[in-house]
């Protein structure tokens, strides 16, 4: 190759490289407010405001109201001599309570031991005096709940006012004032396609805002909670976001982030769910007023009306809730509802699917009379039904319930009403009265006194209790925070002083 041609080519390459470096330097310098590039760039005014369309005002309005929640609880485990490890359920299925040791002999389980587990979640300040909405699973069974404010980083001990496992809603409170309460929106007004922000504390990295749209409304039959009416969104929701805020473009609270559909990664897949704020408010109001949620019921089993079923029944299309069974001596039975009826309306509101009926009835007042529109034998008819309180409804003991002399000794105890099925499971006579213990906090005075899950509490301080409401009232009126319980355990009665 001719040397002059080689040098000429090398010089051209050097110039090209130099040009790239010069341009790069100019672009980097432009980031600091000036440019050395010879390209005629049109630069934005550095004093100009934010983009014309932004969700920043909505984020600024809501972020101070979304807190981090740290919780801990005592968990009992059973170890084995020599191994010191928990027995895997798979091994228990084959080997029972014993476990084959290294020497070929059977080792017996040691006494239960306790350790403390921690958890992280989020919550939303809903009033300036310290009431915070979150998920039940964020605080469920917790012995300690701590709230960290996002702006000041102040930390407060929180007490659980009450929880509702069936909707996964919990109300907690911190002793503070002048807190930045969020503005409550109206979740019934949201539409598919509305832009939303999810705010929370994913993976404990700190407060995070993600953006998406409302992907669907009224999601149900997912098997996540007993009562489901979820808002679905593709805004990124991850572990730690539970209990955080889903807000609209005005920064108003429209949902409490609750769950995600996740595959092996356990992280966001673009399908997240939030409890609508209108539902959460109804649950919250009952918790605040009574310490628990009381639900009504009709006493029917219902299923969806498919196009094929609608054609067979003579309906114009798939609508309503098809009654597949009527419970004996239930409000529905007393009103004359029958298997095969299709409930297409309640109090003038159409029922599009079975979940509509279930959600509407559950949030009504027991003893309320509702007007049903029922399709039967090719004709529409009106049926009035007086609702009743749902039997066996689980009620979480209100940790905020206190006597004038101090805190209740039964804090951390959850009970539910007795029904025929529960009595059969406990092998107790049908005439047994009381409430069955469904949960006892291992660190509570009640656990220390010997109260166990499955015990039937029949008296509190010599006063008979026949349902969860009477139990809650008796607990609130306990003198000096101490209670004398009459407990029925497997048919044997005993007194426990808590």
> How many domain modules?
4
Report the uncertain regions. 3-34, 76-115, 394-407
Individual helix count: 11
Assembly state of the chains shown: single chain
Range of strand content: 25-35%
CATH structural architecture of the largest domain = Beta Barrel
Mean pLDDT: 77
Q: Determine and state the CATH class of the largest domain.
A: Mainly Beta
Sheet/helix structural class: alpha+beta
Query: In which range does the helix fraction lie?
Result: 10-25%
CATH fold type of the largest domain: Thrombin, subunit H
By DSSP, the count of extended strands is 31
Cα radius of gyration in angstroms: 30 Å
Shape: flat
Structure commentary:
The protein is of the alpha+beta class and 498 residues long. The chain has 4 domains: 1-46, no CATH class; 55-294, Thrombin, subunit H; 296-389, Pdz3 Domain (Roll); 394-497, Roll (Pdz3 Domain). Helices cover 20% and strands 34% of the residues. It is built from 11 helices and 31 strands. Strands 23, 26, 27, 28, 29, 30 and 31 form a 7-stranded antiparallel sheet that branches. Strands 1-4-5-8-7-6 form a 6-stranded antiparallel barrel. Strand 2 (99-100) and strand 3 (106-107) form a beta hairpin. The protein is flat and about 95 Å long. The termini are far apart.
């Amino acid at each position: 190759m001719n040397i002059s041609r080689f040098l000429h080519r090398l010089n051209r390459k050097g110039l090209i490289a130099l040009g790239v470096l010069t341009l790069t330097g100019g672009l980097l310098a432009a980031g600091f407010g000036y440019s050395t590039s010879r390209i005629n760039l049109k630069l934005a005014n550095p004093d100009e405001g934010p983009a014309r369309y932004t969700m920043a005002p909505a984020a600024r309005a809501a972020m101070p109201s979304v807190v981090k929640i740290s919780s801990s609880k005592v968990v009992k485990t059973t170890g084995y001599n020599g191994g010191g490890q928990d027995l895997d359920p798979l091994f228990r299925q084959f080997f029972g309570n014993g476990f084959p040791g290294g020497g070929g002999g059977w080792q017996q389980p040691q006494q239960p031991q306790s350790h403390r587990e921690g958890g992280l979640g989020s919550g939303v300040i809903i009033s300036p005096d310290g009431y915070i909405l979150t998920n039940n699973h964020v605080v469920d069974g917790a012995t300690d709940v701590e709230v960290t404010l996002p702006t000041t980083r102040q930390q407060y001990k929180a007490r659980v006012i009450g929880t509702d496992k069936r909707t996964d809603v919990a109300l907690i409170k911190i002793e503070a004032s002048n807190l930045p309460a969020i503005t409550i929106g109206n979740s019934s007004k949201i539409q598919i396609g509305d832009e939303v922000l999810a705010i929370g504390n994913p993976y404990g990295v700190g407060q995070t805002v993600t953006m998406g749209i409302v992907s669907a409304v009224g999601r149900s039959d997912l098997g996540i909670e007993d009562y489901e009416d979820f808002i679905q969104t593709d805004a990124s929701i991850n572990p730690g976001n539970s209990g955080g805020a889903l807000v609209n473009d005005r920064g108003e609270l429209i949902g409490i982030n609750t769950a995600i559909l996740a595959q092996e990664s356990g992280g966001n897949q673009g399908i997240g769910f939030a409890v609508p704020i209108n539902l959460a408010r109804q649950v919250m109001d009952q918790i605040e007023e009574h310490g628990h949620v009381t639900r009504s019921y009709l006493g029917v089993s219902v299923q969806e009306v498919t196009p094929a079923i609608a054609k067979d029944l003579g309906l114009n299309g798939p609508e309503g809730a098809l009654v597949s069974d009527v419970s004996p001596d239930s409000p529905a039975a007393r009103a004359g509802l029958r298997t095969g009826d299709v409930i297409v309306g309640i109090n003038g509101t159409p029922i599009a699917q079975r979940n509509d009926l279930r959600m509407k009835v559950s949030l009504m007042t027991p003893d309320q009379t509702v007007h049903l529109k029922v399709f039967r034998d090719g004709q529409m008819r009106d049926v009035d039904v007086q609702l009743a309180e749902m039997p066996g409804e689980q009620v979480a003991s209100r940790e905020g319930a206190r006597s004038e002399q101090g805190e209740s000794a039964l804090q951390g105890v959850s009970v539910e009403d007795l029904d025929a099925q529960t009595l059969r499971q406990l092998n107790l006579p049908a005439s047994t009265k009381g409430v069955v213990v469904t949960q006892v906090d291992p660190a509570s005075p009640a656990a220390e006194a010997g109260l166990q899950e499955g015990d039937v509490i029949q008296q509190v301080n010599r006063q008979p209790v026949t349902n969860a409401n009477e139990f809650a009232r008796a607990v609130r009126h306990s003198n000096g925070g101490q209670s004398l319980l009459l407990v029925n355990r497997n048919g044997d009665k005993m007194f426990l002083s808590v």
